[in-house]
Amino acid sequence: MSETLLKVVVRKRESHTDGVIALELESLDGEMLPAFQAGAHIDLHLGEELIRQYSLCGDPADTSVYRLGILKDPNSRGGSVAAHLNLLEGTELTISMPRNHFPLMVGAKRSILIGGGIGITPMMSMAYSLMADNQPFELHYCGRSRETSGFLNDLASCSFTKHVDMHFDSEDQRLDLEAALKGADADTHLYVCGPNGFMDWVIGSAKELGVPDTNVHKEFFNVEVKTGGASFEVFAEKSGITVQVGENESIADALKAAGVKVQVSCEQGTCGTCLCDVIEGIPEHRDVYLTDEEKEDNDQITVCCSRSLSPRLVLDI
């Protein structure tokens, strides 16, 4: 079944810093957009085979627009640069339906939201939902400085302002994780999104402080992908095609070269767009999308970055 795509227009664009823009997207016909849950993201179709995911940061109760923030990444593979250059007010574009791989846990007695840099965006939609449901939470926004941090005005004037604590390195106000996680118990859930080093620090510290792994929820927006490895064979069962995946080639690229339609997006194993069922063989998981438990099952693989520990994989594609 083909994916449902939406046609939208950029209703509003704001430059929050030299490197951060905020966009409001509305439907071309002025109708309400599909509902979304806190933590959800959408795919932006920015060019031929250039698809990137961005978290929705608006209030899930308001579907008149989708609001999101985009950091112009100096190491961009094309997506954020294209967005900054081309997504001007009045620009029409195609987006996906909202998808959520980073949901809030229903019924948690306490939620701790930690956003580093542009990782604040999914935390904002979570805060809106928690506030509307009258659920206890704290939101910590960490950045290098106010000058490089977006959404400051939004956070200072929104419905959940009193729940927000800001931490800027330039002001010597770094987040004290031990204090932030004090009193965390089995009914406390931690959510974190941000740069890799920041994520590692928060997740590692939470583990050391006794927060159960199952209570730590994370979303990566950029990862270092391990590349290369021994060649192996892949049989695409639905397509009836066998390919040899080269030492420095991805499964997705090998399949596409043989005419098998493969949908990819992040190309880093973060979004799950290319997730495929494994019928036979043992994957070498290199993604951050699947949980450790899901990886142990070895029945799914992200074909954009993962490889094989067995000489042959049979995939349901």
UniProtKB/TrEMBL annotation:
Location of the FAD-binding FR-type domain: 1-105
CDD domains (UniProt xref): fer2, PDR_like
Listed transmembrane segments: none
Entry keywords, A to Z: 2Fe-2S, Flavoprotein, FMN, Iron, Iron-sulfur, Metal-binding, Methyltransferase, Oxidoreductase, Transferase
InterPro entries referenced in this protein's UniProt entry, alphabetically: 2Fe-2S_ferredoxin-like_sf, 2Fe-2S_ferredoxin-type, 2Fe2S_fd_BS, Beta-grasp_dom_sf, DmmA-like_N, FAD-bd_FR_type, FNR_nucleotide-bd, MRET
PANTHER family xrefs: CARNITINE MONOOXYGENASE REDUCTASE SUBUNIT (PTHR47354:SF1), NADH OXIDOREDUCTASE HCR (PTHR47354)
Tree of life domain: Bacteria
Name the UniProt record assigns to this protein: Vanillate O-demethylase oxidoreductase
One term of GO molecular function: methyltransferase activity
PROSITE patterns linked to this entry: 2FE2S_FER_1 (PS00197), 2FE2S_FER_2 (PS51085), FAD_FR (PS51384)
One GO process term, biological-process aspect: methylation
Organism: Marinomonas primoryensis
Domain annotation 2Fe-2S ferredoxin-type: ranges: 230-317
Cofactor entry: FMN
